[in-house]
Amino acid sequence: MNVKHELLDNNMAKLTVEVDADVFEKAIDKVYNKQKKSISVPGFRKGKVPRQMVEKMYGADVFYEDAANAVISQEYPKAYDECELDIVSQPEVSIIQMERGKTFIFDATVALRPEVKLGKYEGVTVEKADAEPTAEEIQKEIDRQLSANARIATVDRPIENGDTAVIDFDGSVDGVAFSGGKASNHSLEIGSHSFIDNFEDQLIGHVAGDDVDVHVTFPEDYQEKSLAGKAALFKVRVNEVKAKDIPTLDEEYVQDTTEFDSVDDYKKDVADKLRSRKEEQIRRAQEDEALEKIVEDSQMELPDAMIDTQVNTMINDYARSLAQSGLSLQQYLQFTGMDANKFRENMRPDAIKRIKTSLVLGAVADAQDIEATDEDINKKFEEMAAMYGMQAEDISKNTQGSELKSMKDQIRLEKAVEYIMDNVKPMKPRKKKSDEDKVEV
């Protein structure tokens, strides 16, 4: 394999990768062997058709596309390592030459990590805040814990806001069913607004066993254009109504559900934990404020391909998170009425923010010669071992190559954040002009 690269404008580069002809030939043969079981030709048993016969009937290039994909998937990572460029996007691939007996050539256009001109990053001012919890915050947390310890029970009464309705539903538009519009025994929290329009509101007042016609209208910008702006009918069957039986805060509850003997001790513990939580929230808010100011004071030019790659990563992460709750991304978009393109566009500002923050932290690490030491890495392995119930040595053995590099990069960024926060200047928030202008009477 031979790799050449050409630097382009706007932090882009083009890799030209030349692969030996025999590599492409082997890929063709591998594709043929994989597909031959499903190829039928009169006069031959299924799976026994010679490759030359298949190519004669369907064209010499019948296996080219799959073979090319295989070669690119195999050779691009090698080209990535060989070119030693700081690539920060997925490649946009173009095939330059694809002929039997000739060198297989493809181009990969990629984004390179942009140069960052750092602004002020030492002595950044951040807003100072009080971590002491208020009586209202303490009571709210107690109410939350009481609700979390509530017994979920099936109730024989009409659905109320906050209940969970277990339903079957079947949606249609103009009498025609549509994809993703049908489910059985779906648990829907009333008031969560997880379904489009006023779907949930129309279930309030109904009881188990009721059949309900729910009428909703898809948004005008709905992702499925055939449904956009259309009125839909959902045939809903209420199978079960569930409600929370929230316990009372008393000595018996405290002794049964906590490590404390009295309500006062329990409340003190709630206050202490809230204080710690608020301290952490304040620290994170100050981090965000400091990083936002540093990013705003720094200069960099982001290639679109870098942003697109970050957006793709975020969408994939979001889809995996949805899958854990039993929803596909397509179903989520349907239920929320979100257009796929709009959903992607909504991700873009956060993607840009994440990229700029990461680049700035990397630049701070470079400026301060911050590196991930062996001690840092071993500490991270110990933390992972405790989290996953494994031996640190085993995690270390399985974390090599690009994974180890990614870990080291993340540690560098975390240490850069620590450096910035060690040098911030907490300041009390300025009084609003309206407050300064107030006159006591």
Features:
441 residues, alpha+beta, Alpha-Beta Plaits, Chitinase A, domain 3, Trigger factor, domain 2, 3 domains, five-stranded antiparallel sheet, four-stranded antiparallel sheet, 11 strands, disordered C terminus
Model description:
The protein folds into three domains: 2-111, Alpha-Beta Plaits (2-Layer Sandwich); 151-245, Chitinase A, domain 3; 265-427, Orthogonal Bundle (Trigger factor, domain 2). Strands 6, 7, 8, 9 and 10 form a five-stranded antiparallel beta sheet that branches. It has a four-stranded antiparallel beta sheet with strand order 1-2-4-3. Strands 5-11 form a two-stranded parallel sheet. By secondary structure, it is of the alpha+beta class. Helices cover 46% and strands 19% of the residues. The termini are far apart.
Topology:
Blueprint: E1 2-8, E2 12-19, H1 21-35, H2 51-58, H3 64-83, E3 92-97, E4 104-111, E5 125-127, H4 135-148, E6 151-154, E7 164-173, E8 176-189, E9 211-217, E10 231-245, H5 251-257, H6 263-296, H7 304-324, H8 329-336, H9 340-367, H10 374-388, H11 392-398, H12 401-422, E11 425-427, H13 433-436
Parallel strand pairs: 5-11
Antiparallel strand pairs: 1-2, 2-4, 3-4, 6-10, 7-8, 7-10, 9-10
CATH architecture of the largest domain: Orthogonal Bundle
Which runs of at least 5 residues are low in confidence (pLDDT < 50)? 434-441
CATH class of the largest domain: Mainly Alpha
Our Rg estimate from Cα atoms comes to 30 Å
Reading the helices and strands in chain order gives: EEHHHEEEHEEEEEHHHHHHHHEH
Overall form: globular
CA-CA gap between termini:
84 Å
State the major sheet. Answer: 5 strands, antiparallel
CATH topology of the largest domain: Trigger factor, domain 2
Structural class: alpha+beta
